[in-house]
Amino acid sequence: MNQTFRQPASQAPVAAMDGLEDQLIDAEADSLPPPQAPVLRSGTARFVLGASLVLIAFNLRPLFSSLSVLLPEVMQATGLSPAGASLLTTLPVLCLGLFAPLAPRLAQRFGAERTLLFALLLLATGTALRGFGTAPLLFVASFMAGAAIAIGNVLLPGLVKRDFPDKTAMMTGLYTMALCAGAASASGLTLPIEHGLTGSWSGALAVWAVPAFIVLLIWTPQALGSRRQASHSGFRVVGLWRDRLAWQVTLFMGLQSALAYCVFGWLAPILRERGFDPTTAGAIVSVSVMAQVVTCLAVPSIAIRRKDQRGVNVALIVAAVVALLGILFAPTSTVLFWAILQGVGQGGLIAAAMTLIVLRSPDPHVAAHLSGMAQGVGYTIAATGPLIVGIIRDWTGGFEAAAFLFVALGLGAAVMGMGAGRALHVGARTIRVPDRA
Questions:
Q1: Residue 365's pLDDT is what?
Q2: Is residue 5 over pLDDT 50?
Q3: 437: which DSSP letter?
Q4: Percentage of the chain surpassing pLDDT 90?
């Protein structure tokens, strides 16, 4: 007989949250028996594992921001139109949505460590392929690396929660800062690398394969030495895709992510068209990305202590969108302020979206499936953001009209954020599937 697992409706979602450490989703949550953490023999091995996870997180964002600061040079060298460039910036974001649902299945079959090892190999190879400097290989490389990043996005948080149950809050902070540091480093250093080291835009893009290959070498013995347990799916979640609240969470994730990847893909070209030199534009983007760390770490703790999250969601959206309008139209002397404000708002939105997945879920199994739904559908929606910005640039010859897109995305995210921010649980439930063996 099937057994249903559900948190009592009278129990507030916040009561189920002990803090930041409970906000990680385990991609192997549906495995039966549950995956066991590897036994580490020494503090050194534990340190190497933690450092490896942080270094992997560092490598999950340079693909996006390194291309952004060199996009005009790439377009000139390859003959890509603004529409073609928008496709290039959109493709890896689309891969985040297409491949995210596959990550848990791969982890259940091959183990999270080995699956992540394959993703690192794919990421490093794809990034290195950008060094050939041809348009077709740029698209192939973006597809490969985007698929790898999608897998890493899903698996890394669960590994952090599984392997560091006593230090999850600290590891979450390091993991989050590494994500932002990777994006900021690529924004701020890619042009100096081109000018002082490689002498070419293609070489500067390919350089970001080096840290990926390094962490691949560090991770290989840990992944191959892990003891993967045979597992099968022991639980099934029903009713999620028909639930209105689940769709509100998913659309909030997608619309705020669309804003985020518009920034990753086009903020540097926008700044360059406003008169900033390439190096300064990259530095401003780097500062904006690093500003995300502040609210990325602070918002979850604030959100879980409130009666609901509607006010937090709307305030962050207003900050992010108003800042984008400031970047587009305010005097250039104020751009740094608007860039920092945009980073604060955008970082908070990312954290709020991930927090809502947990707060709206009655149990870990629903949370894992809601995470897959929100990331799969959400990132597919997000891919339209940078694509439309490129089309607008192609049609109008400038970025000013993109303001209408930013406002529309902000309004949509605000509406979905109001719905998703209510102190309710999604109407899905978890059913335990009997073992037929």
A1: 77
A2: no
A3: -
A4: 56
pLDDT band at 392 (very low <50, low <70, confident <90, very high): very high
- Predicted local distance difference test score (pLDDT) of residue 237: 80
Spatial separation of the C-alpha atoms in residues 225 and 379, rounded to whole Å: 33
In a domain, 437, yes or no: no
| Mean pLDDT computed over 265-280 | 93
Residue 2: inside a domain, yes or no? Answer: no
Average pLDDT over residues 190-205: 91
Place of tokens 């534990």: 46
Give which of 357, 410, 359 is closest to 12, Cα–Cα.
359
Query: pLDDT tens digit string along 203-214?
Result: 999 999 999 999
Token pair, residue 206, equals 């390919």
Please state the domain count of the chain: 1
Label the pairing between strands 429-432 and 235-238: antiparallel
In three-state secondary structure terms, 431 is strand
The per-residue pLDDT for 100 is 85
Give 172-223 as a DSSP string.
Answer: HHHHHHHHHHHHHHHHHHHHHHIIIIISSHHHHHHTTHHHHHHHHHHHHHHH
- Secondary structure class of 52 (helix, strand, coil): helix
Cα–Cα distance, 75 to 312 (Å, whole number): 39
Neighbour tally for 83: CB within 10 Å? 15
| pTM assigned to the model | 0.83
**Residue 3, domain member (yes or no):** no
> Which conformational region is residue 199 in: left (phi greater than 0), alpha (psi within -120 to 50 degrees), or beta?
left
* Count of Cβ atoms closer than 10 Å to residue 176 Cβ: 22
- The Cα 253–Cα 356 span in angstroms is 9
* DSSP code string of 249-311: HHHHHHHHHHHHHHHHHHHHHHHHHTT--HHHHHHHHHHHHHHHHHHHHHHHHHHHTSS-SHH
Provide the pLDDT for residue 17: 38
DSSP state of 164: -
Q: Which residues contact 244 (CB under 8 A, 6 or more apart)?
A: 419
Q: What is the CATH number of the domain that holds 171?
A: 1.20.1250.20
Q: Where are the alpha helices (DSSP H) in 59-131?
A: 62-78, 82-99, 102-110, 112-129
Task: With respect to residue 6, please indicate whether it lies within any of the assigned structural domains.
Answer: no
Is the omega angle on the peptide bond into residue 33 within 30 degrees of 0, that is, cis? Answer: yes
Is residue 155 within 8 A of residue 115, CB to CB? The reply is yes
Q: Residue 335 is part of which domain span?
A: 11-432
> From the CB of residue 85, how many other CB atoms can be counted at a distance below 10 Å?
26
- How many residues are recorded in the chain? 437
